[in-house]
Queue: 2 jobs
Job 1
Amino acid sequence: MAATAVMLAERPFTAIRITDIARASDIAQPNFYTYFNTIDDVVLALAQEISFEDLTRHLEPDWAGEAGVDHAARLVDAIIEMWRLHRGVLSIIGYLAERGASAFATVRVAHMRPIYKGFEDKVRRSQAAGRLPTQIKPRVAGYECVSLLTSVGERYELLRASGFSHDDLKGTTARLLHLIAMGGKG
């Protein structure tokens, strides 16, 4: 599987063949089929080794005031690092999920569920405290926060090449997340 992860980071998914994986893994091609039926199966196995659960620690503390912005900034840094480490696999998961591959959509949702649930909870608490209007749907807000995080992680290098510093990306994304989760009075 490690050979597949390296290939996913170096070349397009559509350019990877089972023969390439077997050769890079130093196994005979028929042995590949002992463990996997398709390249998709390898990518799914790699995806299941990735966990976003630990990132929820950044959502556990109170996000009130500037300390909350700091927690959000640490979450943004952690997402950027997660994407740096697993870009090839995460990109393919997103690509295939968007094209209707249900197994990949399921994995993507499982990866991000703890994070969107954390944001959903923050929005509900902010509504209860009167900081956010009740017209905001907490679940939608949670999904939108995940979209912001995914966007900055997935497009980090492109955004950096466009002239944005790491601090620009982290700071702006953190403040947007904080604003969504805590409201203007958070």
Job 2
Amino acid sequence: MLKLIHRERSRMNVVSESEADTKQFGKLLAISLFPGAIVGLVGDLGSGKTRIVKAVAEGLGVEPEEINSPTFTLIQEYSGRLILKHCDTYRLRDPKEFVDLGLDELLAEDTVALIEWADRVMPYLPSDVLTILIDATSIHSRTFQLDAGGKSSQRIIDEMDSFFLNHWQDFPKLLMGKRLRSRAAEFHCSTPVSLRWMGRLLFFFGSQGSFRC
């Protein structure tokens, strides 16, 4: 199960103990996203950046078989609850080539941008980026450090933090597509943050045909 181990105003540290946890992290991130959000993924080769992108895409309602790594085009676009643009800068010969990809379109206000190897192109990104540093602590376990660069990315951290604060222990079951009992659906629905969460969960599980309350 995902564990929140540290929280500051603009930083959050989360531990994943398995591949299933990492998938849950990606879907938790997906539910917290909104148009104009920019997420930069940083980590060594094989740390799980692409796995997170796939989980985010699934969390936004994209069919798993549609999700591919941007091998040749460098940018893939998917349509779900939000328009998702996935950019992998690993194959750029020079980070300056990133500008030629069309930043206005990639970072448009009506889309969500996920950028792998974001540390290579940070000078060309806006300051308001949610940076996720991935540390592979073992074969399957990961530590995610989330840092907000501004108000927009701070909002993502606050949304994710509100989920941990609400202690919805059934969340791992939900993200694996199992049914939610009505009692759990009514849990903590009195606060504005929780109502936003319920709306997103209703969208996600309604679209998957596996939500009932």
